[in-house]
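Quick question: what would this complex look like in 3D?
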Amino acid sequence: MRSLPLYRAILLAIALLLPAAAFAHHGWSWTTGGNIRLTGTVVEARLGNPHGELVVEVDGERWTVEVGQPWRNRRSGLEDGDLAPGTEITVEGEPDADPETRVLKVERLWLDGRKHELYPERD
Amino acid sequence: METVAAALEGLALAEWLRQSRWGYAAVNAGHVFGIALLVGAIVPVNLRLLGLWRSLALRPLYAMLARIAATGLALAIVTGLLLFSVRATEYVALELFLVKLVLVAVGALHASTLHWATRFPDVSRARQRLAGTVSLLLWPIVLVCGRLLAFL
């Protein structure tokens, strides 16, 4: 039993190491809770698992725009190549609560006026 | 390193994992399962090495759990390579990823040296405690590094 304090210390150390806060990508806890809409040009596209990410230039500012995984993009009617660099795009979704980061997680987007719903259950 | 990463990313298997809905999820689950086996096995052995449950014989406990841990590590490495291939060029640019790789190498080297180069667990009490401490610190840190990669 004399090792018990050591055992407790180790468990405490492990607990302290676990991340207390989540950051980007996962869920919506890191976003503002309100939607904004941006229109700009895709300058970079990194699509595919585990996360799809675009860099979109909006009025001279570069935004990191998180789109869906391939299955979610396809479900919304997007096809391979639709989000290629050079594409004019309008996106709506929730921005990072820290406005300095210029990160937005997309709920829906428009290409040529056509709407693609990535998260139909969210408003 | 970047050329190897780019070559890996170009593999047909990597492209398939990038596009598939359940393939990536399955490999991801396999990676978690490997880590669960590894950490789940080393924690009881290490606590025993540190002096808990002295009434339990260390030798059979070690014989069983070292194999489980090694199996878990092997599964985590194979699935980890597959996950890495999906975004290899991005991962090699992440410091945290490189730190994690080094820690995995240190942990695996530490365990295999003890296992094959000593008569472990038949070593001094002090050596047992040191081994238990190193392992119990190292692997949870590796786990946390890995989990944090998903949040960068």
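Answer marked as accepted. The two ends of chain B are 21 Å apart (CA to CA).
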